[in-house]
């Protein structure tokens, strides 16, 4: 019989046990027609790339199926009628890989990494902490920049404008 991989995306309102029960229903349908589930992986509750039927997260499950095409059509029909299933995708494969999928192996790698040491300084942070007087504008003023006196050029409302001088 041909081999298939079916990925099912279920609503986040359902529990993991209900998603497992959905896979059990598929298994019982296949056993009645001489098929079987060779691989079953629950990927967990994951974020969706975009909203699907007002859901931002969903339960993912991968099934490796050994089934006849007619029984697969019936399974897909049942999945499309189920309100808990948001999306499903079934593809034909040459062989079902017994090793964990890339999703599960990546999760295992994340757990093994652990602590990597202190974080380096930010992209624009040189590590030197500057005080209030170390800023460039204050250094330029203190090194010889001229400060206007409180009389001559300044009026009660600030420096004179060119329009006031033209009058």
TrEMBL record:
Where along the chain is composition biased (Basic and acidic residues)?
125-167
Which PANTHER family does the record cross-reference, listed alphabetically? MITOCHONDRIAL 28S RIBOSOMAL PROTEIN S6, SMALL RIBOSOMAL SUBUNIT PROTEIN BS6M
The record's similarity note reads: Belongs to the bacterial ribosomal protein bS6 family.
- Alphabetized HAMAP family for the sequence: Ribosomal_bS6
The record's listing under Pfam families reads: Ribosomal_S6 (PF01250)
Chain segments carrying region Disordered: 109-167
Name of the coding gene:
rpsF
InterPro entries noted in UniProt = Ribosomal_bS6 (IPR000529), Ribosomal_bS6_sf (IPR035980), Ribosomal_S6_plastid/chlpt (IPR020814), Transl_elong_EF1B/ribsomal_bS6 (IPR014717)
Q: Which organism is it from?
A: Lichenicola cladoniae
Look up the domain of life of the source: Bacteria
UniProt-listed GO biological process terms: translation
* Keywords on record: Ribonucleoprotein, Ribosomal protein, RNA-binding, rRNA-binding
What does the entry list under GO cellular component? cytosolic small ribosomal subunit
**Molecular-function GO term, any one:** structural constituent of ribosome
> What name does the UniProt record give this protein?
Small ribosomal subunit protein bS6
The record describes the protein's role as: Binds together with bS18 to 16S ribosomal RNA.
């Amino acid at each position: 019989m041909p081999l298939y991989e079916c990925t099912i995306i279920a609503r986040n309102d359902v529990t993991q046990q209900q998603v497992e029960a959905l896979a059990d229903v598929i298994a019982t349908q296949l056993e009645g027609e001489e098929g079987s589930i060779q691989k079953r992986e629950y990927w967990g509750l994951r974020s969706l790339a975009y909203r699907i039927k007002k859901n931002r997260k969903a339960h993912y499950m991968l099934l490796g199926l050994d089934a006849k095409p007619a029984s697969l059509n019936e399974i897909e029909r049942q999945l499309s009628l189920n309100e808990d299933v948001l999306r499903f995708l079934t593809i034909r494969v040459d062989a079902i890989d017994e090793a964990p999928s890339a999703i599960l192996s990546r999760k295992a790698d994340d757990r093994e990494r652990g602590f990597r040491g202190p974080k380096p300084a930010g992209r624009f942070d040189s590590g030197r902490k500057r005080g209030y007087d170390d800023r460039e504008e204050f250094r330029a003023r203190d090194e010889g920049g001229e400060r206007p006196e409180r009389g001559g050029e300044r009026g009660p409302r600030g420096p004179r404008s060119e329009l006031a001088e033209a009058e």
